[in-house]
């Protein structure tokens, strides 16, 4: 049944689908990639449907230019998922679907294409034959595995398990049971950005030796991404372990989705289409009619509330899996009583020395990279600021430069003050580089390693560094939140938290939730096998309730208090939000535009939708561009969605020249 018109989606900000004249000899099917002319070039599009008529004069339509290859079509469910994401995040179907393919599959094939394609197919995935002891499940784990394995159809569940409770083992058993039920099943295991994939992947590989385990993360080379994608699409890979973009992987026989560390902010994309991969994983499971498990030691308040209110099943694991391992003991050190010397309180110093003497490892956590966040002139009060952003330029001693963490601008540290010429320039505050240096002075005999974005810049270096910690080559690991995430370190018995007071006092209402979570995570690296773990937190506010809950290892107590506060103030998750963000050279013009937009919004307002006043963003200027935002809120996501669809098309119709985008369910303000 050859139809004369092909409807195609492409990666361009165009409303609806594009119509082309079909070329029946190509034998195109829905979900297949095709080559179509767009403007003056050819691009890769995806066939979204066929028709016998068009809104456009048929004789003016251009012909489909060809097909890149014979690769099987993307599934109908995949098309539905990407269409949903485009609708929900106010983008275009093609702008979600096409960029979700690896670059290799969205480029017009060159002369060597067939050859490269067969190389991609032939790539060997690492196989593992290390022996593995499979632990007997404990009671908690077993009950969960049994119950979850009974799930039929779409059934979301939250696995809330304290750090070290053995969530990974639960995942492995669920994967195993899924294969038992369907040997051809495919499984998607999602993990946060920058981490532990190597360790996890080799564990999975050891467990499922006869299976192909593919991986996907943003730092992989393009060729690797393409072969992983193809192995999944052609069902040669049974398991995909990947970061946020893997939620869009093509997995035609997908039977189970697991989202590890579901609270992690790296599931949210902050450029292009601002999707949340955790939320889309739930949608994908619903479309596929399959079970989905979200796991965390500190679930997001959204997920925890969904569980409390019965929308997700809630599984709890309250004990550490390793028989002798207890949850760490947390002590608060009041920095107004025990004044830090070079950042370290005396009690902390003693404990670090103790730990070194026992031959155990310590982690020092400081969520700020660089040497010092700002350089100050002691005689005139000059501060190092970025000329292009409303932000300080951070001093990096390793490079001897002042660097802006927003735009990357940098200059050599001047020898004298650029304003008054005085030589009294002084780094103020402390980042990981400075803390590292201070630790080296204090414990010259210790092997100290720093792990943060700067030291982990080169591909693979983060995992090499983590390997060094696992193998015991490091005595003290100092780092930013990269050190907090999910690592199963066996020899760490002390965790020190240097300074988190700025986050405690932040105006962003999610800051407390994030702080609690990162502290719980980093604390959870201590005492995972045997030896009682200790956590020391240096703070000026030891009486804050956040620390009380943390000390009691009481995530649920904390979450319930936060939820109560949010409910009273009708903040998320008790309301739904979207941010309209606009940018330009002049902040007044940007704010004026947002005020106009707000008026338009008010004129089409429905239900509970409400607007705040436009305000400059917290970091108002980045790369000489001024940025402001308009917060839109409604009682629930459905009302907000309904409104946003009308609202954005209203604004598009007016064809403003201003640059703007909308962030639905924003995570930061
Ligand atoms: N049933 C079991 N018996 C003995 N050891 C187990 C069992 N289950 C898991 N373990 C071990 O417990 C340790 C912690 O497990 P795992 O890393 O899965 O914890 P987790 O819940 O993911 O923790 P986190 O949230 O901190 O990442 C691992 O070393 C694992 O091998
Ligand atoms: Zn800058």
From TrEMBL:
Key words of the record: ATP-binding, DNA replication, DNA-binding, Helicase, Hydrolase, Isomerase, Metal-binding, Nucleotide-binding, Primosome, Zinc
Binding site for Zn(2+) 1: 377, 380, 417, 420
EC number assigned by the record: 5.6.2.4
Free-text cofactor note: Binds 2 zinc ions per subunit.
Pfam hit, one: Zn_ribbon_PriA
Cofactor section: Zn(2+)
Domain Helicase C-terminal: 412-580
A Gene Ontology molecular function term of the record: ATP binding
EC class of the enzyme, as a word: isomerase
Positions annotated to bind Zn(2+) 2: 386, 389, 404, 407
PROSITE patterns: HELICASE_ATP_BIND_1, HELICASE_CTER
Example GO biological process: DNA replication initiation
Stretches assigned to the Helicase ATP-binding domain: 148-317
Catalytic reactions on record: Couples ATP hydrolysis with the unwinding of duplex DNA by translocating in the 3'-5' direction; ATP + H2O = ADP + phosphate + H(+)
InterPro entries: DEAD/DEAH_box_helicase_dom (IPR011545), Helicase_ATP-bd (IPR014001), Helicase_C-like (IPR001650), P-loop_NTPase (IPR027417), PriA (IPR005259), PriA_3primeBD (IPR041222), PriA_3primeBD_sf (IPR042115), PriA_C (IPR041236)
GO cellular component: primosome complex
Function: Initiates the restart of stalled replication forks, which reloads the replicative helicase on sites other than the origin of replication. Recognizes and binds to abandoned replication forks and remodels them to uncover a helicase loading site. Promotes assembly of the primosome at these replication forks.
Subunit and interaction comment: Component of the replication restart primosome.
Family statement drawn from the similarity comment of this UniProt entry: Belongs to the helicase family. PriA subfamily.
Protein name: Replication restart protein PriA
Organism of this sequence: Parasutterella muris
Name of the gene encoding the protein in the UniProt record: priA
């Amino acid at each position: 049944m050859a139809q004369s018109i092909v409807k195609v989606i492409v990666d361009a900000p165009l409303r609806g689908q594009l119509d082309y004249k079909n070329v029946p000899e190509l034998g195109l099917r829905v979900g297949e990639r095709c080559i179509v002319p767009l403007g003056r070039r050819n691009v890769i599009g995806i066939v979204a449907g066929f028709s016998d008529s068009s809104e456009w004069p048929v004789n003016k339509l251009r012909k489909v230019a060809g097909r890149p290859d014979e690769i099987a079509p993307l599934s109908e469910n995949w098309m539905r998922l990407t269409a949903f994401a485009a609708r929900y995040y106010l983008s275009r179907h093609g702008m979600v679907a096409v960029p979700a393919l690896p670059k290799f599959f969205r480029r017009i094939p060159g002369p060597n294409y067939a050859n490269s394609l067969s190389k991609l197919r032939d790539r060997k995935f690492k196989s593992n034959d290390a022996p593995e002891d499979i632990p007997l499940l404990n009671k908690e784990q077993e009950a969960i595995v049994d119950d979850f394995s009974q799930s039929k159809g779409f059934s979301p569940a939250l696995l809330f398990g304290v750090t070290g409770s053995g969530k990974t083992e639960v995942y492995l058993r669920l994967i195993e049971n899924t294969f038992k039920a369907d040997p051809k099943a495919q499984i998607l295991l999602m993990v946060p950005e920058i981490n532990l994939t190597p360790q996890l992947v080799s564990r999975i590989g050891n467990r499922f030796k006869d299976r192909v385990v593919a991986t996907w993360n943003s730092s992989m080379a393009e060729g690797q991404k393409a072969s992983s994608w193809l192995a999944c699409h052609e069902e040669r890979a049974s398991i995909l372990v990947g970061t946020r973009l893997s939620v869009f992987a093509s997995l035609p026989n997908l039977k189970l989705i697991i989202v590890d560390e579901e609270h992690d902010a790296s599931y949210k994309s902050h450029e292009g289409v601002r999707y949340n991969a955790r939320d889309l994983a739930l949608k994908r499971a619903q479309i596929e009619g399959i079970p989905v498990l979200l796991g965390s030691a500190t679930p997001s308040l959204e997920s925890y509330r969904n569980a409390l209110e019965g929308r997700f099943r809630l599984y709890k694991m309250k004990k550490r899996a390793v028989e002798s391992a207890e949850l760490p003991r947390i002590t608060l050190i009041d920095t107004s009583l025990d004044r830090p010397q070079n950042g370290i309180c005396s009690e902390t110093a003693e404990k670090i020395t103790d730990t070194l003497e026992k031959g155990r490892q310590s982690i020092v956590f400081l969520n700020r990279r660089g040497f010092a966040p700002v350089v100050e002139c002691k005689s005139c009060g000059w501060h190092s600021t970025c000329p292009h952003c409303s932000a300080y330029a951070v001093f990096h001693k390793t490079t001897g430069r002042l660097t802006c963490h927003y735009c990357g601008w940098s200059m050599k540290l001047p020898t004298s003050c650029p304003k008054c010429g005085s030589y009294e320039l002084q780094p103020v505050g402390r980042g990981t580089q400075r803390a590292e240096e201070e630790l080296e002075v204090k414990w010259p005999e210790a092997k100290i390693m720093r792990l943060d974005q700067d030291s982990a810049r080169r591909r693979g270096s983060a995992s090499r560094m983590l390997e060094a910690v696992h193998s015991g080559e490091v005595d003290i690991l100092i780092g930013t939140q990269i050190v907090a995430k999910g690592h199963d370190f066996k020899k760490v018995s002390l965790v020190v938290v240097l300074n988190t007071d700025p986050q405690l006092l932040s105006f962003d209402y999610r800051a407390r939730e994030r702080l609690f979570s990162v502290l719980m995570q980093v604390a959870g690296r201590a005492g995972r096998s045997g030896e009682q773990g200790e956590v020391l937190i240096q703070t000026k506010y030891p009486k804050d309730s956040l620390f009380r809950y943390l000390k009691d290892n009481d995530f649920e107590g904390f979450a319930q208090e936060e939820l109560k506060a949010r409910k009273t103030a009708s903040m998320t998750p008790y309301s739904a939000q979207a941010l309209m963000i606009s940018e330009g050279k002049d902040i007044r013009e940007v704010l004026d535009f947002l005020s106009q937009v707000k008026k338009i919004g008010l004129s089409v307002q429905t239900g509970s939708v409400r607007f705040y006043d436009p305000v400059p963003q917290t970091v108002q200027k980045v790369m000489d561009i001024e940025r402001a935002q308009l917060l839109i809120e409604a009682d629930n996501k459905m009302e907000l969605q309904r409104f946003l669809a009308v609202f954005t098309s209203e604004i598009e119709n007016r064809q403003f020249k201003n640059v703007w985008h909308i962030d639905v369910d924003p995570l930061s303000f």
